[in-house]
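QA checklist item 7 of 12: single-chain prediction sanity check.
[x] sequence parsed
[x] length recorded as 260
[x] structure emitted
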Amino acid sequence: MIEVLRNKNQTTRFQILGEIADKGPDIQQREIAKELDITPQAVSDYIAQLINDGMLVALGRSSYRVTSEGVDWVIKSLKELNSYNLYIQRAVNNISVCAALAEKEVKNNMPVSLKMIDGMLYASPDIEKGATGFTVSAAKAGEDVGISGIKGIIPLKTGSVTIFKIPDIARGGSRRVNYDILKKYTAASSFIVSLGIEACAALGKIKSDFYRYGAVDVTVEAARTGLDPLVCCVEGELNELIIRLEKEKIHYKLVAESSL
């Protein structure tokens, strides 16, 4: 068992260092106590231990700084937690059943390869490198089938997002879009998202199918599953979308093709 999960003392030390690193240096002990659901006296005792161990430095009354030793210990613990998380995920996968689409007809208890196609998980009787498992029932091509005993990692490449900027209503909205160019982008994309009223109007004019609800989340999820979404985005919504994509480390390109 990793150190930070070995006992309550280590877990609480880890949490206190995290709280101070996140909200410090001027953080009240009672704030930490409330967040961790322990008594202020317990927080005071732990802080004294951490100072004594060189992981914290007291800067003044209710003011602390995590030392380099403390940072190193937190990072080491995080790496151990991440490794343990992967271990548990693999263990759970081996006893759980997930759903996939049968790429071809499969029989019960047949070994299959798992892969992502157009954002969907498929099970194929043609064994390839990567993730594998066993079917829990027979299924025809295109039917859903349960997969158990999953091993390995499913090959997955994060998609890239193309953002087509649409003028906001103050600058003409959908009336100022270059539709010849917009049609080229929509024709080349199998996953189109609309962000903003003006964008909905523009896509409606060319009778394009698109997603509109939860547009930012839908875009991120689609890219994570390997799709390359096209987002028609009103100028005023660009900032939120780009911040989210950068936070999720998803590649994007911005095209501003209007008739302005």
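[x] summary fact logged: The chain has three domains: 3-91, 96-151, 161-255.
[ ] second reviewer sign-off
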